[in-house]
Each structure stands twice: as structure tokens, then as C-alpha cells.
Design a protein that fits this description.
By secondary structure, the protein is α/β, with parallel strands linked by helices. The chain has helices at about 30-35, 55-65, 75-85, 115-120, 125-135, 155-165, 205-220; strands at about 5-10, 10-15, 95-100, 105-110, 145-150, 170-175, 200. The chain is globular, with a radius of gyration of 17 Å.
């Protein structure tokens, strides 16, 4: 049954939305009984920088039931995105990297944040790879493609992903300040929009978070 679900696996957490034309198909009781939800975070408050913090299992279950998605192993692609992200601090940019993967699993475009370098407010890693891919394919529609990014996209980038009609979004660390793919908003799966995107979160989130935390520590001294 198509449903709005959150799932976990060794390679991340998958989120998909219910069909807005079929209300009532999702039962929160099923989610609570299955016992498959987001990981619960305990301990001290997180630092005031983008970092991983996943919703508690019961809160997530109230929003959507759980399932295990037949997803690809995206670890290698996230490692490529991390390699891109590590280049951003050299020109004063926040270390966020992204790759766009075509339906055959090949990396079509890769880049990292260049906002400071280009003095362009739209030069986020996600925007750059979507533009590169559109130029390479000669099409703005990128159906079947997957966007892999080290940090949860902001509203601008999440909106661009929807506009590009990508199939899937894979991200590492959650962004509690501006995240628009689950943390603050869920633009890729908003039932009011005309396109919905599968979301896989938490892919190599620790590595992605460490890169960000180290950057902000060094730049706040």
C-alpha cells in the first residue's frame, strides 16, 4: 500500500508520503506496533550549528507509519559528496557537498557550496549540481535522478529539487535551523505540490556533521 512512511535501514532512513488523493490509508497504530521508527536522540542539547538530531520514534510514528524501503546503498555516493564538501572551506564556504546520480547509478554532476567564493546567494551545492545536470542533459526535467547531499536542503534547494522532478533525495546531517526536507518543512513531499520525492536521511550523518561542526568551531574563534 502506498503510504506516508518513515523507515530505517543500515544505510539511512527513508521517508515517503501518502497519496493525497487516498486519505485514511495510513494508520498510526500500525506504525506504533511495528516498532520501526526514527532513532531516539538522548543526551545534552546539540550545538548551535547544523547537526544531526532525529525526531523521536513516537513523534515520528504519530506523523507516519514505518516501512523498509528497497533502497540502493548510497554510501559511496555520499562519500563523493563528502569529498566535495571538504573543498568548500578553502574559499570560506560552509562544507556542504552534493552529487547528482542518474537513473543508471552514474554520477552526472558534483559540486560544493560556492556562495562566498562566487558572492552568489544561490550558489548552494544542490543548486549547482542541478544546473550542471540540466546543461549536460539539455533538459530541466531530471526524472529518475537522485540528489545526494551532505546536509538537509534549505527551502530554496528543496524547492529546486521538486521543480527539477528528481526521484530521490539522500542527505546526511539534519539541519534544524533551515532544513526543508523534514526538520522544519517537508517541501519534497508536500501533498499540495505536483511532484513528490522519496527521501532517505541519515546517510553517513556522523561524518557529515563532524565536518560542519569543525568548520564552525574554527570560524567562531
Amino acid at each position: 500500500m502506498a503510504g506516508n512512511r518513515i523507515g530505517t535501514s543500515d544505510e539511512g532512513q527513508a521517508h515517503t508520503l501518502p497519496n493525497p488523493r487516498q486519505p485514511g490509508q495510513v494508520r498510526e497504530e500500525a506504525a506504533l506496533n511495528e516498532g520501526i521508527g526514527c532513532r531516539k536522540v538522548t543526551g545534552p542539547e546539540p550545538p548551535a550549528v547544523p547537526g544531526p538530531k532525529i525526531r523521536t520514534r513516537r513523534r515520528a510514528a504519530r506523523q507516519s507509519p514505518s516501512y523498509r524501503s528497497p533502497m540502493t546503498n548510497w554510501k559511496q555516493k555520499m562519500e563523493e559528496a563528502l569529498a566535495e564538501a571538504s573543498q568548500a572551506p578553502a574559499h570560506g564556504d560552509v562544507p556542504v557537498g552534493a552529487v547528482l546520480v542518474d537513473p543508471q547509478g552514474r554520477t552526472l554532476a558534483s559540486d560544493h557550496n560556492r556562495r562566498e567564493e562566487a558572492q552568489d546567494p544561490t550558489a548552494h551545492a544542490e543548486m549547482l549540481v542541478l544546473s550542471q545536470a540540466a546543461r549536460q542533459t539539455g533538459r530541466w526535467r531530471l526524472e529518475g535522478h537522485t540528489l545526494v547531499v551532505t546536509l538537509e536542503p534549505c527551502p530554496m534547494c528543496a524547492g529546486a529539487a521538486v521543480a527539477a522532478r528528481i526521484k530521490r533525495l539522500v542527505y546526511g546531517a539534519a539541519d534544524l535551523k533551515t532544513g526543508a526536507a523534514w526538520s522544519l518543512y517537508n517541501l519534497p513531499q508536500d501533498p499540495r505540490l505536483n511532484h513528490h520525492i522519496e527521501i532517505v536521511s541519515g546517510m553517513l550523518e556522523e561524518e557529515c556533521s563532524i565536518l560542519l561542526v569543525d568548520f564552525f568551531k574554527n570560524n567562531l574563534r
